[in-house]
Amino acid sequence: MIRLSTNKLGSQSNDGAALLTVLVALLLISLMTLELQYTSLVERKLAYNDLNKIQTHYLAKSGSRLGLLRLTGYGRAKKVALSPTPGKYGAAKDFLDLIWNIPFPAYPPTRVALENLSLQEKAEQLEALKETRITAGQFIYSIKSESSKLNLNLISNNGGSGCRALPASGAHSVGGFICYTLYQKISQLFKDSESPTDEFGTVKVDDIIDNLVDWISVQGLSNARDNDGWYERQFPPYKTKRGRFFTLDEVKLVKDISPSLFLKLKPYITVFSEEGKANLTDITRNGSLKLYFPRISQYAIDGINQAFQTKIAAGAPGWASVPDFFAVLKSYDPASATDYTGVENEYFTIDSSLFTIQSQGTIQKSGSTIQSTISVAVSITSNTDCGSPFDYDQTKCATDQDLFWHPVLQKCFGRPMSDAGCEECFPGKMSFNENNSEYVCTPNGNVSPPIKRRKLAAGVTAPPRALKIYSWLES
After folding, report:
1. Do 142 and 38 belong together in one domain?
2. The CATH number of the domain where 170 resides is what?
3. Tens digit of pLDDT for each residue in 366-416?
4. How far apart are CA 427 and CA 442, in angstroms?
5. Does one domain contain both 375 and 393?
6. How far apart are CA 30 and CA 35, in angstroms?
7. What is the pTM (predicted TM-score) of this model?
8. Same-domain check for residues 102 and 88
9. Alpha-carbon distance 389 to 404, whole Å?
């Protein structure tokens, strides 16, 4: 009996071990299944996130493309309205800014927004939404004029010591004007700082200007203080660029531009334009009067803003002309107006030529928000006076009467529209035809036929020709 009981107990023990083995195996299988399911869910989530990110990118791209389209339309409208013989379209110049500065709502609209429409309008909108093939998400974009900022790429080669006073009228005066204004702004930042040494370091304004000029100058600035050695001692080491700034963040690489100084200068500077005149409408709208008129009183600022708002309320896009602004400035602050006597039109304009487009695509899924952003810096350029060439071959260039094929550079340019334009395209000679209605560039007398262009009427600016993209940043 004892032997039988022992066998029974042994049998039960073996059964228990087998059962335990089965349970462990089932547990392991369950854990592997759970891990596989979890991994699959994670990979699926990541795949959907990648898909959503791609979708938001193209949503943002749609907004940026629409912004470029509006600016293209603005440029073409300007060409007609500001041409020497605008005809019946001349009156349109008072409404040009509306083409780009009217806000654009988020698109596509939400279903909630459509509920307020009539049945017919709602059906039309829903049909339009189907044609867009946008099944999820929205995009929104804005266009802002940057024509009130100082272009660092145009700073005069005089360096810091040459920027303490406003330059006289003449060649390269715009670069000197920018340098002078930047000098005044940095000096004011130093004065307003509670501890300029801690905030900006032991540096002089002259040195900062010298370093900026040295960075963009092809030959370098002779009085720059061992800049090459300083850059080579950085980690990682780098060299002075000896060329124009391509991005605004590049300014942070320049010697003596501290992070604090860069952040305080950033709202007032740009590197995305080839023009240096400041837009008085933008200056007033953006509250930048103190930048260009350091001595201006708060009383004058309030008066100018009130006059500006009166014009806006009456339907005007801004100041009617440069003299219009200076007449108001002179009535409130004659001293500040006197600073620019005789050179107002050389340094200021009421025209917007530089813009930034900010576009954002958004998709909301499962309580999370996925976004993509595109920022574009673009200018409307006349492409005259041998500026940036057109990407045309000689045959296509010949089909447009406003263009010509440069015999030396072998590229297509806009025909010069000024004395300076002829000099820039062909350093040498320039003459006029008999009736004095055309410019005729005759460089060294060996261009056949001569490069001709209708002479602009007094006060008429060169009409815009094309968009030039300076920066396209995606995130």
Report:
1. yes
2. 1.10.40.60
3. 677 888 999 999 888 654 555 556 667 788 777 766 677 777 677 777 766
4. 10
5. no
6. 8
7. 0.69
8. yes
9. 10
pLDDT (0 to 100) of residue 86: 46
Place of tokens 């780009």: 100
The pLDDT value recorded for residue 387 is 57
Pairing of strands 438-441, 368-381: unpaired
- Burial group, residue 240, by CB count within 10 angstroms (0-12, 13-18, 19+): buried
Is residue 320 domain-resident?
Answer: yes
**Which bin fits 195, alpha (ψ -120 to 50), beta or left (φ > 0)?**
beta
Same domain? For 122 and 209 the reply is no
User: For residue 74, is it within any domain?
Assistant: yes
Is the domain of 180 the same as that of 118? no
Question: What tens digit of pLDDT does each residue of 27-70 get?
Answer: 888 777 777 777 767 666 666 677 788 888 989 999 999 999 99
Question: Is residue 71 situated within a structural domain?
Answer: yes
- In the listed set 350, 371, 405, which residue is the last one of a domain according to the structure? 350
- Answer yes or no: is pLDDT of 186 > 70: yes
Say yes or no: 121 and 239 in one domain: no
- Check residue 339 and give its pLDDT: 84
Q: What is the mean pLDDT of residues 428-452?
A: 54
Structural domain for 286, as ranges: 278-350
Residue 438 phi, psi (nearest 5): -135, 150
CB hemisphere CA count around 140 (13 angstroms): 10
d(CA 204, CA 254): 14
Q: Give the residue ranges of DSSP H helices in 82-165.
A: 98-101, 111-114, 119-132
166 occurs within a structural domain: yes
Put residue 342 in one of left, alpha, beta given phi > 0 → left and psi -120 to 50 → alpha: left
CA–CA–CA angle 182, 186, 191 (5° rounding): 145
How many folded domains does the chain comprise? 4
**Domain identity same for 165 and 51:** no
**CB atoms closer than 10 angstroms to residue 458:** 5
| 42 and 30 housed in the same domain | yes
User: Which residues share a beta bridge with 414?
Assistant: 403
Closest CA to 308 of 356, 354, 350: 350
Query: Last residue of a domain, which of 245, 276, 307?
Result: 276
**What is the DSSP-derived secondary structure letter of residue 358?**
E
Q: Which one is predicted more confidently, 84 or 369?
A: 369
